[in-house]
Amino acid sequence: MGEWSDYFEDFPDENPANYVNGRFDPQGAAAQRAAESKLRQDQANLNAEIRAIIQKHRPPAADKK
Q: Could you list the pLDDT tens digit for every one of the 65 residues in the chain?
């Protein structure tokens, strides 16, 4: 028996990742995944920028003795 990916290539309507709100919509599902991926990447970029700003304005650490 082949891989699951081979099966889903032959029968895309059986792939649960191709459903949006309970309806078979492979293009809509792909668009939704792309939008979510872009949102995650944008948020990661903003988080990195926030960390850089915090590091820039953080006072130097006092020596621990």
A: 578 888 988 999 999 999 999 999 999 999 999 999 999 999 999 999 999 999 999 988 766 65
Nearest to 57 by CA among 2, 49, 65: 49
| Residue 12 token pair | 């895309």
Helix and strand numbers (H, E) in the chain are 2, 2
- Give CA–CA dist 31/9, Å, rounded: 18
Residue that is written with structure tokens 């903003």 in the block? 46
Per DSSP, helices labelled H in 1-65 are 4-10, 26-57
Distance separating alpha carbons of residues 6 and 19, to the nearest angstrom: 18
Q: What is the pTM of this model?
A: 0.68
Paired residues of 3 in beta bridges: none
